[in-house]
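In the previous chapter we treated chains in isolation. Here, by contrast, the input contains two separate entities that must be folded as one system, with a combined length of 513 residues.
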Amino acid sequence: MLEILQFDFIQNALLAGVLISIAAGIIGSLVVVNKLTFLTGGIAHSSYGGIGLAIYLGLPVLLGATVFAIITAIIIAILTLNNRSRVDSLIGLMWAFGMAIGIIFVDLTPGYNVDLMSYLFGSIIAVSSDDIWFMGILDIVIISIVVFFYKEILAVSYDSEFAALRGINTKFFYTLILILSALCVVAAIKAVGLILVIALLTIPTYLAETFSNRLSTMMILSSILATLFTLSGLAISYFYDISSGASIIVVAVVILTVVKLLKR
Amino acid sequence: MNIIEIKNLSYEYNPSTKVLENINLSIKDDDFLAIIGPNGGGKSTLLKLMLGLLKTNKNCITKNLKNDHIGYVPQNTNLNIDFPITALEVVLMGHIGKKRKLFGYSKEDIDCAKHSLEQVGMSGFENRKIGDLSGGQRQRVFIARALCAKPKIILLDEPTASIDVKGQNEIYELLKQLNKSICIVVVSHDISVLLNYAKKVAHVNKNLVYHSLENIQKNISTTDEHLCEVELLSALGKTQICCDHKHQD
């Protein structure tokens, strides 16, 4: 059984799973405590527009998705900071519009026959070494920013009015959290796909929150749980030959349900 | 000494409706001022203007102290109780925005936060999750956070709104202690703060009516007679107040 670990693509998949889980645990915690799940969903889905555009222009897909997701994050940040009343409608609009652009650009690309489903549902087996580099660098960036600005991020997330009173630039940190979520989403598309990425960000975090007194504990615990879910989901997907993204999410939901029921 | 002086202050969120009109108020460094008034009367707006959370373009508000020396306890501390944060970390928020250590909290900040918790009687709760504390305990933690800034004045927005009577009195006793060295301004609907703790009262309903409470407190005994809260509150909204608002049920 262990001989499968000798395959390069399996090693890549495992490494990618671990790297993504670290980012998802940290960013997922921020998304959940700031109640930004719907916003992050919007960013994830509209980044499909970037994938379509990159395919059409013949650019690297990861680059297209990254740029598009960051721009979406900044637009959503500006919209939510200035127009509180109809934020959910605007996010819904961007959510659908991004996907529509993506589909149209892929339609317009002549002779394009790559499996589009892999972007929607993920194909961690197909992850390249470029993707691994991207994920690794992203992890370093996320960890550095969160460690350096921990106090400020904690204050803005818990009580932004008070943080503003103490002279913290709350808009900057809010935008920063959204941009980091956008980058995390893009990196996780390979592993679980853009439809399921929200689950990877929220399920381990939801579970970790029950056992955490501190945001930092929640981040570490979420990362460990996400790694556990990703690796076991990956194993199941390999042995039963089913989609990796879906396997990861099903494992996560089953474990979450069992733990929550036992804890009652 | 007057630490905050408000002169001819008016404020509006949109041009058609004035929330506050021609407000005049001086707050001294040893005051215990209660701000009362109906919902929507502009109490919280006035507080936010004093804090600088809302801006006015005119020079209506003169502060004889730095913004850093204003402590603030927000209205609803029951929001976000699932948030994974300890009591000590909440208090440490009082230090952010100053000169910072590169990573984490400095030892002085932590010592100061622990001392603030001690002042409000919450030693031993440092590592408890904020959501696991009772409403009254949580309110104390937020007062400790305000104390962290070494304030000369603390503004509290309805600090006892969701706390039982025993907890309310404990909070007011604490504020009375703190009032020995710090000016206290509290927005409250609570009649007991008016009768037993506050020295001055400002009734805000677009306009502001100001009273010193000493005479009123002397003339009202609450031991064997019931007091009609509604009448007292509405009486405080008038410029002339007679002190016969006692009722026997």
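The radius of gyration of chain A is 18 Å. Chain A has one domain: 2-263. Compare these points with the single-chain example from earlier in the chapter.
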